[in-house]
Q: What sequence folds into this?
């Protein structure tokens, strides 16, 4: 058994496809990006190595900083608007029971299976100032309904709304699963103790959902950082750079502004930021849990002593 | 006392339904609006009402969308590419998961971490260098330009899920198989794989959802219609029929339809798969 399970050749044959894919599709491109990030390559013709020139420029590039700020805005929007809504709706749905429960769960998830291409164009029409659904709704309630949703100040909100709408079902489903995994006995005990719905939600549901919330918050921040497709089709970063995002910006720089080298430099910084964000978020959540465990076990030891 | 309790229960029930229906309307009404306008005439759209009742239902919009949107070709490409990607992800991730989880070698943890790292790398940062690489190797405009990145970027998640599911498979089973003289490959494909059926379904669903709607890689690496996928029906149409809004609505409804129909039919399995995958991930 042992010999069979440590046969180097077999092991190699099993991991080689995965490793090759990783090297070819992820590692090699990153290395190439690092290289081109040090050049002034336009995408065609000759180029020269310029060292850290691109990175120096990037530090003073307001569009890039705007795109990071927009990611932060989205992340906060997800965490403060989308997720509380998703948790509450999941808790409400959990109470419903029966066929209705499955029906609503199914309905909420439908936007998620529709292509971003369709979603982005559909919302472009919904925001349309002439016959858009949103302005028509305002008119139906007696307003003027001539809002330009894609103005410099409101465009980022317009993007946020689309993303919240599109991703709502996903978040809801995960919270819903989390709630379903909570032991029913706890609720019964709470009911016997005379706790009302609100107390039960804040004292039992929310605390027990903490691990799920942590996973979801991490995902929200990462997806806010990685946002591209929706913005690319909806506003393409405009007006100006008011809805710019890092991924969209590097794409524009490389393929529209013909600054392939600069685009790659943005890509490198972008990867570093994504890695850092993931590591930091995991550390923050892990540490807090571990510290708590340590504190609790410490207390127990004190007691034992 | 008892009656009051019943009444408040009824009110709660009513409130629950009201909230859920309100959210459902928000989530679904834009899609109903889309369907409604896709059957209207372009000039009818400039109403101030929320929906229009088309004077004559314009099925012609859908005919135009179907033909000029290359619907069948793109649908076939999407199904083929995504199907292959799912198969490859499952195969490669099971093999790697078994090697890293079950077999004994020094670098197993390192290789697993390395492969999982892919989860943190943003796809978009690889668009520029991959374009260059595929160009150099003559892979642009071939099926490989989509298949390779689709599999590579879904692999970390697949591997992660497979390794965590594999822990639930009892080792004793394998030991018995080894006694009977089974090789490693037979153990993986004839003993482990059938036991991981629901996990395989989860990985398949997650991979499919990830890649089915992908278009930014496709639009970067492809130029001819030969391998273009379903989202291109929509992307190409806005230029072609820029003023005929109703036809644009029709093409959007048409390209969204396959995924929505499949979802509604398989919704129990899909929600279960997503819940399993997302909670573990």
A:
């Amino acid at each position: 058994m042992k010999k069979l399970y440590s046969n180097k050749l077999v092991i190699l044959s099993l991991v080689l496809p995965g490793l090759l894919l990783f090297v070819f599709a992820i590692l090699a491109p990153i290395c190439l990006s690092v290289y081109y990030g040090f050049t002034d390559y336009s995408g065609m013709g000759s180029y020269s190595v310029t060292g850290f020139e691109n990175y120096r420029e990037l530090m003073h590039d307001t569009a890039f900083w705007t795109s990071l700020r927009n990611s932060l805005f989205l992340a906060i929007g997800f965490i403060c608007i989308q997720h509380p809504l998703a948790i509450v709706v999941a808790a409400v749905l959990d109470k419903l029971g029966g066929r209705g429960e499955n029906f609503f769960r199914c309905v909420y998830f439908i936007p998620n299976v529709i292509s971003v291409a369709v979603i982005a164009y559909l919302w472009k029409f919904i925001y349309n100032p002439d016959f858009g659904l949103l302005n028509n709704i305002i008119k139906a309630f007696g307003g003027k309904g001539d809002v330009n949703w894609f103005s410099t100040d409101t465009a980022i909100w317009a993007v946020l709304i689309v993303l919240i709408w599109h991703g709502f079902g996903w978040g809801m489903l995960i919270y819903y699963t989390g709630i379903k995994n909570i032991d029913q006995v706890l609720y019964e005990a709470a009911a016997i103790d005379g706790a009302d719905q609100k107390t039960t939600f804040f004292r039992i549901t929310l605390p027990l959902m903490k691990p799920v919330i942590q996973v979801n918050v991490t995902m929200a921040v990462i997806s806010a950082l990685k946002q591209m497709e929706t913005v690319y089709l909806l506003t393409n970063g405009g007006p100006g750079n008011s809805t710019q995002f890092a991924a969209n910006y590097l794409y524009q720089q490389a393929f529209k502004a013909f600054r392939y080298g600069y685009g790659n430099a943005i890509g490198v910084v972008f990867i570093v930021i994504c890695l850092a964000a993931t590591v930091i978020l995991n550390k923050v959540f892990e540490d807090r849990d571990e510290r708590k465990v340590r504190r609790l076990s410490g207390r127990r030891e004190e007691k034992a002593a | 006392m008892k009656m009051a309790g019943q009444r408040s229960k009824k009110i709660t029930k009513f409130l629950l339904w009201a909230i859920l229906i309100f959210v459902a309307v928000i989530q679904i009404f834009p899609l109903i609006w889309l369907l409604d306008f896709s059957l209207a005439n372009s000039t009818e759209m400039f109403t101030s009402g929320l929906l229009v009742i088309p004077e004559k239902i314009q099925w012609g919009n859908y005919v135009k969308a179907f033909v000029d949107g290359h619907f069948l070709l793109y649908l076939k490409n999407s199904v083929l590419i995504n199907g292959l990607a799912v198969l490859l992800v499952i195969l490669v991730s099971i093999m790697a998961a078994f090697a890293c989880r079950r077999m004994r070698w020094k670098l197993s943890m390192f290789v697993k971490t390395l492969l999982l790292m892919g989860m943190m790398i943003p796809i978009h940062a690889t668009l520029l260098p991959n374009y260059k690489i595929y160009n150099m190797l003559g892979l642009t405009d071939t099926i490989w330009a989509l298949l390779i990145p689709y599999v590579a970027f879904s692999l970390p998640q697949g591997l992660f899920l497979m390794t965590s599911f594999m822990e639930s498979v009892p080792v004793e089973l394998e030991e018995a198989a080894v006694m009977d003289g089974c090789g490693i490959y037979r153990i993986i494909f004839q003993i482990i794989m059938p036991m991981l059926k629901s996990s395989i379904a989860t990985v398949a669903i997650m991979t499919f959802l990830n890649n089915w709607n992908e278009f930014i890689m496709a639009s970067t690496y492809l130029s001819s219609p030969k391998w273009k996928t379903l989202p291109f029906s929509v992307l190409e149409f806005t230029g072609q029929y820029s003023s005929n809004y109703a036809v644009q609505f029709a093409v959007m409804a048409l390209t969204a339809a396959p995924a929505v129909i499949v979802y509604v039919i398989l919704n129990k399995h899909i929600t279960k798969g997503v819940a399993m995958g997302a909670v573990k991930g």
